[in-house]
Design goal:
There is one protein chain. The protein is an alpha/beta fold and 269 residues long. It has helices spanning 10-15, 64-73, 133-145, 167-175, 188-194, 219-242; strands spanning 3-8, 22-28, 31-40, 43-49, 78-87, 96-98, 102-106, 150-151, 155-159, 180-182, 198-208. Strands 1, 2, 3, 4, 5, 6, 7, 8, 9, 10 and 11 form an eleven-stranded mixed sheet that branches. The two termini are 26 Å apart.
């Protein structure tokens, strides 16, 4: 049995209703997390609406710690996370998919680790390759098999939000080598690695960034773009869940904290 989690926007939850997942509140040392969970074709599948029911949580107020800790408590071994991002240059087109392989963190007021010295010793985790190499290769194969157009690599610049970027910020991020910009990758990807969960990101490029787009960006534009891509995203989810092989036990993500005795939820309770 594979133990899979999908993290996405609130609109995805309704579209996944056919899976028959049931709501569960998981109590964590960081607060409660609302998870949809069920058995799908012999696999445990969890869905987590990152922004909460009805999209009520802005990026900087999401309880990332409770979310990842809850998924770990449920035994999750693989996370497929979707995000909406903006393009930082004219060569990366809107209404496309991108499988990011790097990130640059420009957030300001978030807590980035489970290991802050309060309830367990400090830990330092390698992020040379921020995303699970096994799941990245698997996701790219899935996109190829589905004949979806996508970018197989890309750097995600994460901003604090909830405002959109200025023209100068878009120019700066592009010059630094980022291809897309969003607000929710950090600290989600960091905490998943600390929790020794394999994590991969599939981003939907919803818009061109400030100064590239001929018109000001609106949330309605982003929402409309996500709705346009929704069927493709659902096909990706289905193919990911149906993939016949688990991540090998030798995957380095599963041993990210080996120098600290591994990640154990009971150490936080």
């Amino acid at each position: 049995m594979r133990k899979i989690a999908i993290i996405g926007g609130s609109g995805v939850k309704e579209s996944l209703s056919y899976l028959g997942l049931e709501s569960e509140i998981v109590h964590t040392p960081f607060g409660n997390a609302a998870i949809e969970i069920g058995n799908v074709d012999g696999n445990q599948v969890c869905f987590l609406a990152r922004h909460g029911v009805n999209h009520v949580l802005p990026p900087h107020k999401i309880n990332y710690h409770a979310n990842i800790w809850a998924l770990k408590k449920l035994g999750t071994e693989e996370i497929l996370a979707t995000t909406a991002v903006g393009s930082l240059n004219k060569f990366v087109r809107a209404n496309e998919l991108i499988v990011c392989d790097q990130f640059i963190d420009f957030t300001k007021n978030r807590t980035y680790s489970f290991f802050n010295g309060e309830i367990k010793k400090v830990a330092h985790v390698d992020f040379t390759e921020p995303f699970c190499p096994t799941l990245r290769a698997r996701l790219c194969k899935i996109l190829q098999d589905l004949h979806f157009s996508y970018y197989p690599t890309g750097c995600y610049a994460c901003m604090e939000g909830p405002r959109y970027e200025s023209k100068a910020e878009v120019q700066m991020l592009s010059q630094l080598g980022a291809q897309v910009v969003g607000m929710t990758l950090i600290p989600e990807v960091l905490l998943a690695r600390e929790a020794e969960i394999c994590y991969v990101n599939c981003s939907v490029i919803t818009n061109m960034g400030a100064g590239i787009s001929p018109t000001p960006l609106t949330h309605a534009e982003v929402t409309a773009a996500m709705e346009k891509m929704n069927q493709k995203v659902l096909e990706i989810f289905k193919a990911f869940i149906d993939y016949p092989e688990p991540v090998p036990a030798t995957c380095p993500c599963k041993h990210a904290l080996k120098d600290y005795g591994g990640f154990h939820v009971e150490n936080f309770e």
